[in-house]
Amino acid sequence: MSNNATSGRATEEALSVSTAIGVAKSAVNGLGTFVVAGEVSGFRGPNARSGHCYFQVKDDRSSMDVIVWRGSYAKLDFALKDGLSVVLRGKFDVYVGTGRLSFIASSIEPVGEGLLRQQVAELARKLEAEGLMDPGRKRKIPRFCMRVAVVTSLSGSVIEDVKRTLRRRNPLVELDVVGCAVQGSHAPATIIRALQVAADARPEAILLVRGGGSFEDLMTFNDEALARAVAACPVPVITGIGHEPDTSICDMVSDRRASTPTAAAESVAPALDDVVSVIETRRQRMGAALAKTVQENDVALQQLLNRATQAMRGRLERENALLEATAHRRCLENPMGFVEEREVQLLQSEQRLHDAMPRLMQRARREVELGGQRMRTVGEGLLRPYDATLARMAASLDALSPLKVLSRGYAIAQNDEGHVVTDASALHVGQDVTVKLNKGSIEARVTGLHD
């Protein structure tokens, strides 16, 4: 009886999951606003669909989930990322779907080294957008530099390391040292002046180097003015700042970045043995290339010589054949033969002409006779209608002719001017007249006139 009673009371007092989460949510919401400092870890966002960000904030002992809604994230003037130290202002909340506790951040501010890193990242993005980090802008550095300038602090061990490295690898390299401060607020200005002095000496490259240190110690080389001076330097700049993991803005805009000062010195001064080895290798390669070129040219020359010989021999044979053919021409063997041949041809032509002339004349005569006969026949046919017409007209003319009258015994008198006299008054005594009869005429002189 006692156990059953206890079980019934537990069933009556149990809460549903949603109710329990709701109670916890109400209790958490009543806690008010918190200000929490920590380091960002596991950053995810902004979400492609919602625009919200999710991450954890941790310290040495604990971590908690953080949510930044899209509107709050849009107000930030810096980018959230892992490792950034921040101060969050917001409230705790319980998600009713899973009962998960999260911190809803309404505002976020970077602090300490995280703030410095954020500032450096923003400057890097700015200079990158301007093209100062473009690989195409970086200048080519000679593989073997004979004169190098070093810009660094004269009080540290870095300059000795650089000198020792250059002496060890290639003692022929000339070294100019320009001192400057590498740490502190005034350091960027002194480095800029040192770069100008070093560039005026016209070395083949400038080494801007510094030993290791904390992030704050290396902030000098994240200065915007110094970074622009490095990019604008007329001489290629090689940086060797800090240790391998350290990367500054000056490293990004320089023409070459080395992991350490020693590595920077090694990059401009290859070991003398390496230089000798490279020279020997190149000498051998050049000798082999030259020998191959000479051999190839000799083969090509021999081929050209053979082709030229064959071509010349062929040309001479053709010219000789042409000369032989020309020498055997009749005009050269017997110059008068051509004249004699032409004379014989002319005499033969003359004989043929004499032989053919009578035949041609006879043929022509026959053709002319035939043509004349055909013309007479045609002419008679053409004139026959006109003959009849002419006969009729002649008969009519004969009937009307004065001669017909004269044949009947009449005469025609003409004065001395040849005019027919029809009126005696047209004459005068003593005037000569011609009297035309039917047959012949008589000359007379007027002795008297009668009406």
What is the overall silhouette? elongated
Unreliable residue runs:
none
Give the biggest sheet.
Answer: 5 strands, mixed, barrel
* Quantity of strands, as a count: 13
Mean pLDDT: 85
CATH topology of the domain at 120-135 and 142-270: Rossmann fold
Radius of gyration: 69 Å
- Give the class-level CATH name of the domain at 120-135 and 142-270: Alpha Beta
CATH superfamily of the domain at 120-135 and 142-270: Cobalamin-binding domain
Strand order, largest beta sheet: 1-2-3-5-4
Give the N-to-C terminal Cα separation: 215 Å
Strand content: 15-25%
State the helix count.
Answer: 13
Which structural category fits the helices and strands?
Answer: alpha/beta
The amount of helix comes to 40-55%
Order of helices and strands: HHEEEHEEHEHEHEHEHEHHHHHEEE
Under the CATH scheme, the architecture of the domain at 120-135 and 142-270 is 3-Layer(aba) Sandwich
